[in-house]
Structure formats: C-alpha cells, structure tokens
Amino acid sequence: xxxxxxxxxxxxxxxxxxxxxxxxxxxxxxxxxxxxxxxxxxxxxxxxxxxxxxxxxxxxxxxxxxxxxxxxxxxxxxxxxxxxxxxxxxxxxxxxxxxxxxxxxxxxxxxxxxxxxxxxxxxxxxxxxxxxxxxxxxxxxxxxxxxxxxxxxxxxxxxxxxxxxxxxxxxxxxxxxxxxxxxxxxxxxxxxxxxxxxxxxxxxxxxxxxxxxxxxxxxxxxxxxxxxxxxxxxxxxxxxxxxxxxxxxxxxxxxxxxxxxxxxxxxxxxxxxxxxxxxxxxxxxxxxxxxxxxxxxxxxxxxxxxxxxxxxxxxxxxxxxxxxxxxxxxxxxxxxxxxxxxxxxxxxxxxxxxxxxxxxxxxxxxxx
Length: 368
Fold this sequence. Notes:
The chain is α/β, with parallel strands linked by helices.
C-alpha cells in the first residue's frame, strides 16, 4: 500500500536550498540561513557552544526560563557569565543592558530571548541591538516565539545569531528550526577550537560542507516531512501576508488582556504593562486561594483543544497561559478560552462577568 506521508520522493539539495531562501525572506536577512534538523533547542545550543569558550565574557539576559538555560550552557563552555535578570512580569530595557556593558567592558557575547512565551513578556530588541552593536559584542537572539507574531529584523537590529522555530506564531512544525548567521559570527565560531565539529550541534559543518560547497550536497538525510511542512507553513504566511499575521497576533493579545480584565474573578495580567506583553501568549495571575493547574484542568474539561496551559515549574500554581498563536490567534479562540476560564472560576466560587469579557474582546478586536 502507498501512503502520501511515507512514499515521497527524496528531498533534493535544490529543494532544501529553496526552502532556506524562503525562510531568509521571512527574516528579511542577507545573512546565511541554516535550517537545522531538529527542534529550536538544537541551533540555540549550537550557537552557544560554537561561539563561547574559556575567555568569553557573556552578558546573559534573563527574562524567563530560556535565559536561565542559556546561562547554564555558557558556563558549561567555560565562559564567564554575567546574568542580567529582571522580574518575569516585565521586560529588560536597553538602558539596563547599556549599564551592564559599561560596568563590564570585557563582555564580548550577549544572549537574549525576544519573546518569552513561558512568562508572556517581550523585549525591545531593536534598541538593545543598537547598544550591543556600539559595544562590539556578538549578539545572539532567541526569536522562536516572536517570529511571525511581531517585527523581527536581524540585519537591521545587528543580530549575529538569530534562531527561529516554526511551531508557535508561524503555525508550522516543531521538528525543524533555523538560524541566521552573520559574517562576524562565522569568524568567531571558526576561531573557536571548542566549537562542535563533525557533530549534530555543529553550525560550522553546515558552513563548510553545505554553504561553502554551493548547497549541492546535504550533510545527512533531511527530515522530509518536517521540511515539507515548513515549506507549506511559509507558503501560508506569504499568502496571508506577514503584516497581517503579526496584526492578528497583536489583536489576539490585546483582546485577551482586555477580556481577562473585564472577566474579573481575580484574574490579572501577569505582565504588568501592556507594552511589555508578548503578542504570542498572554499570561494571567490567578487569585489567592486558586491553583492555576487545577483551574486550567477544569477549564479544559469541556473543550480540551483550547490553547490553555498552566505556568511551568514554580509558576504552575499561580499562572495561566493563553497561547493565542498560530491557528489559535483568532477571536474565537480568545473568546472560548476566556469563557472556559470564567466557568472554572465560577465553579471555584469566584464572581465573574462573562458578558463583560465578551464585550471587551469584541470592542478590542472588532473587525473580524
């Protein structure tokens, strides 16, 4: 028996390269783009292990759990790490980054997460990039959650290593990811004797064997289904228009925030200021006496497919996430999520106003 998922012709190097080119277009970048055959943690770790070494001094900005992970990898590479941590309910500022760079002029590497879906905040990368570029440090950005949801311009912002994944705002597969690499970053990695080589983590292998070889021979058999899904995902974004896609995510975030405030029941935005809130996900703090995990479980009883999840780790008792990204960046998904949370809160004895929440969503996101 044949099967459309199983009996596919091999993905040719030319086809692979064409998908890379379309991803580069999505980022408006002239830098080399490498599509890596794994979830975005693969290029994120590959970037750090390629660029960091003993003697590196890194400024690691921590606005959520991924920033904490980057610090661990940097230390494992032998780098001296200066963590710039800010409360998860806010965003880091360019002024804070500039102050850290001034205090430690030896810093030559900066790592930052653009949007932290786990905590619901987003950072002003354009302003931070200007500060980092003036300092002369290499700049690595995790844009996995932000790509497709808000502006992302690695070239204009001076980002040397920009990692993206397709599984959030892009609405694509999780099994492949990509990184844009500047000339400065390639030089840093090539000069690092500790950089992974002949390894699945190696960016340099892709540079030497794929890019420098004219993109004629792939390093290994590509993830066929994931690459085709990535291509379909980019085609869908091109058809909708990137600006329209970003506007849809922005509207979903604004409507969710407004609706949650109108709903009542003790729910409050976890990220205090709307300007610091990521368009990819809205995080909400539950009232005292309510367990977030139990609230989400109750909310999902009637509709398990809703984009609701409790916060991770220590946040699991106090935070609810509404993951309004990709196909869930719709007014219907926002309304249904708030209705389910309202019903669960009412069941826990909290007073809610579902009609006020619906009105706030429709007034915030009217043209649908």
